[in-house]
Amino acid sequence: MIVTFLARITPACKEVTALASESMDRRLPLSARIKLSLHCWICEACARYRNQLRLIRRSLNASDGPNRPSTPSDDSKKRLVEAFKAKHR
Questions:
Q1: Which pLDDT tens digit goes with each residue over 67-87?
Q2: Which residues have C-beta within 8 Å of that of residue 45, sequence separation ≥ 6?
């Protein structure tokens, strides 16, 4: 009964995945955060997706070391340009 009620008042999975992704970039309004959390209580797939996004975020943040360059080196840029050109030939 509670699950049915929550399913009616929360957004569809497609919207929830978009909200979960958006929440990685900015703080969502309170109403959106509540809807997202409620939906994840009743939908295992969306809860898993949200947790995967969080894991990716933590992993990427952990790989940011003080010696990590903020932009690719000139050599890396040249290799990337050549790889893109080769792919489009």
A1: 665 677 888 888 888 888 887
A2: 13
On whether the CB atoms of residues 10 and 40 are closer than 8 A, the answer is no
Let me know: does 16 contact 36? Beta carbons within 8 Å: yes
- pLDDT tens sequence across 43-59: 999 999 999 999 998 88
Burial of 41 (0-12, 13-18, 19+ CB in 10 A): middle
Between CA 77 and CA 79 the distance in angstroms is: 5
Nearest to 28 by CA among 46, 9, 13, 15: 15
Q: CB burial class (10 A; 0-12, 13-18, 19+) of residue 58?
A: exposed
